[in-house]
Amino acid sequence: MANYYTDHPEIEFHLNHPLMKRIVELKERNYADKDNFEDAPVNYEDAIENYKRLLEITGDVAANIIEPNSESVDQEGPHLENGRMIYASKTFENLDATRKAGLWGISMPRRYGGLNLPNVVFSMASEIISAADAGFQNVWSLQSCIDTLYEFGTEEQRAKYIPRICAGETMSMDLTEPDAGSDLQRVMLKATQDEDGTWRLNGVKRFITNGDSDIHLVLARSEAGTRDGRGLSMFIYDKRDGGVTVRHIENKLGIHGSPTCELVYKNAKCELCGSTRMGLIKYVMALMNGARLGIAAQSVGVEQESYNEGLAYAKERAQFGQKIVNFPAVYDMLSRMKAKLDAGRSLLYQTARYVDIYKALEDIARERKLTPEERAEMKKYTRLADAFTPISKGTNSEYANQNAYDAISIHGGSGFIMEYKSQRLFRDARIFSIYEGTTQLQVVAAIRYITNGTYLSIMKEMLEAEVSDSMKPLKARVEKLVALYEEAIEKVKADANQDEHDFLGRRLYNMTAEIIEALLILDDASKAPELFEKSANVFVRMAEENTIGQHAYIMAFNAEDLKNFVAVEPETTEE
Fold this sequence. Notes:
By secondary structure, the protein is α+β, with helices and mostly antiparallel strands. The chain is about 60% helix and about 10% strand. Helix 5 runs antiparallel to helix 10 (about 330-365) and helix 14 runs parallel beside helix 16. The longest helix is centred in the C-terminal third of the chain and has 40 residues, at about 370-410. The protein is globular and about 70 Å long. It starts with 8 loop residues before the first helix and ends in a 19-residue tail after the last helix. The mean pLDDT is about 95.
C-alpha cells in the first residue's frame, strides 16, 4: 500500500539532523507534559518516534485518500451558493480524513488540544499533503495562521480559538484588496469601534485563499486619516458572528481545490489581535514568514510528485526500440529534477530548523526571562531564519515550476493531454512563485543579507565542515564558486549604483541559493551517500554551470548598459 512518507526515505533523513535534539529539548521543556498528556514523549527518542508515526499517518492519508480525490477536486472545484463558498465534494472527504487522523493543531501546545510538534515536522506533513494535492494543502496548512494568534493574542483569545483549530476548523489570512496586492500599505478595509468598544469591519478583501473559513485573521485600517502601514491593525473575525459574504470565487489556472474568494465585510464584528497600529509592521511580517515557509514545503511536494510522474512515464514509454529513460536527453532532465528536489528539500528543512529554535525560545521568553546564552541563541537563529526563508521560498517555488515543466516534456504530447497528472502539477505549480511574495520580492527580502556578507559568512562556515572522501573533489569546486560569488558582490558594491544593484539582484540571489544548496547537499551525501550522492554530483555541476555564467555577466556589466534594457520610459504616478 502506497505511503507518501515511507516511500521517500529522504524525508526521514532530515529528522536525524543534529539540531533536532536542541529543537525537541526546547519544544518539550524537559518533557514536562509527560505526566499530564498520554501522547507526550518521555525522552528525545520517544519524541522522534512520535514524529515518525504522525508522518506515516499523514503519508497514508495523502496516498490513499487525498491523491485519489485530487482529479475530482480539480475538475469540480469550489462553487458559490447564496454568498457562501462550498468546497468540492471530495474536499469534504479530505477534511474529514485529516480530522479523524488527528492532523490539526499540529504546532499548538497540548493544553489547547494541539500536538506540540515542531515546524520541521509540520513542513514535512505539508510537503506530503502537497504531493497528493497542492490545492488541498492550502486549505489544510492555513491552520498555521493560529501561530500568529498564539503569539500575539490574549490568553482569553487563545483559549477561545486554538481548541477549535485543533479540532479541525479552518483558517484564512485576509490581507489583500483590489488596490493592495504586494503593497499592503494601501489596505483600506475599515476597522471602527462602537461606543461599547466592539470593533467592526467594513470593506472588501480580494484573492483570499480559503476565504470562507471558520476563523480569519484580517488586516484592516484602524486609524482614521492614515494611508500607510502605521495605521493598520490585525483583527480576528469569527464566521459564527456573520457580517461577511463571499461575492466571487476566482476561476483559476490551477490549485482548484483551494478556493480564492472576494469577501465583502458589512459591519462585521471582530476582535483586535495584539496592539493597534502593529498589524503590518509586526503581525503580518510574522504571518507572512510562516506562509512563505509553507509555500516552500508545498513546492517541494510538487517537485517530488513531478519527478515521480516523469520517472514512471520514462520507465514505461518505449521509442526507437528502448525505454526513453535510457536516452541521455531524458535522464539529464530526470537527474536535474531529482537534484533540485533533494537540494531544495535540504534548504527547506534547514530553514525550518532555524525557525523552530528561535520560535521555541520566543515562547519560553513569555514564561520566564531568558539567560544571556539563550538570548544570544535566539538572536542567532532569528537572523538565520530571516536570511534563509526568502531563498527557501523563492528557490523551491521556481524548482517546482521547472520540475513540473520537465515532467510534461518527458511525457511529450501525452503531457499536454488532460488525462495525465503532469498537466495538473504544471498548472498548480505556477502560483507558487507568485503568492505570498513573488520571487522578485524574495530577492528584495534577501538582498541585504547578500550585500552585508551574511550569506558569504554562512558559506565560509559551511566550507569548514568535513565531508566524506567521495565529496571532497566536489567541495573543492564549490570553494571556487564561493570565491566567484564574493568577487561579484564586491563588484556590485564598488559600483555603488542603485539601479545596477537592483538589476543584478536576481543573479546574486540565484548564486546565493545554489551555492548554499550545494553545500547542504554535500553534507547530506556525506552522511547518506545511498540517498544523495548522485544528486550531489549533479547539483554541484549545475550550480557550477549557472554560477560561472552569472559571475561573468555581473563582472562584465556596466551601469551604462542599463539604458539598453529599459523597454519604455518609466512613468510617474500621482495620487
